[in-house]
Amino acid sequence: MPIAIRPELERKIADKVRSGRYASVDEVVADALAVLDRAEAAENLKADIRAELDKDLAPAELNESLPPDAAADRLWDRINQWRRERHETV
What we know:
Layout: H1 7-18, H2 25-61, H3 68-85
Helix pairs in contact: 2-3
């Protein structure tokens, strides 16, 4: 699959290969995509956590506060559930 990229990106990729860290252009691109996947997963986790916090904050707005330890436990449970769903280590 031919891909057109800007000359400055092409130079950066070539520099990475020349450095010896990568054996080929394919390895540079594969590593870059893996980093992008992790960044997107982190953004999704951030959104999930934010949604859970919003849900957990609703009782506090009604003066029905959740003890800090219980809130932290609930948040960690959600994070670990998210990791398990994505087959990440907990």
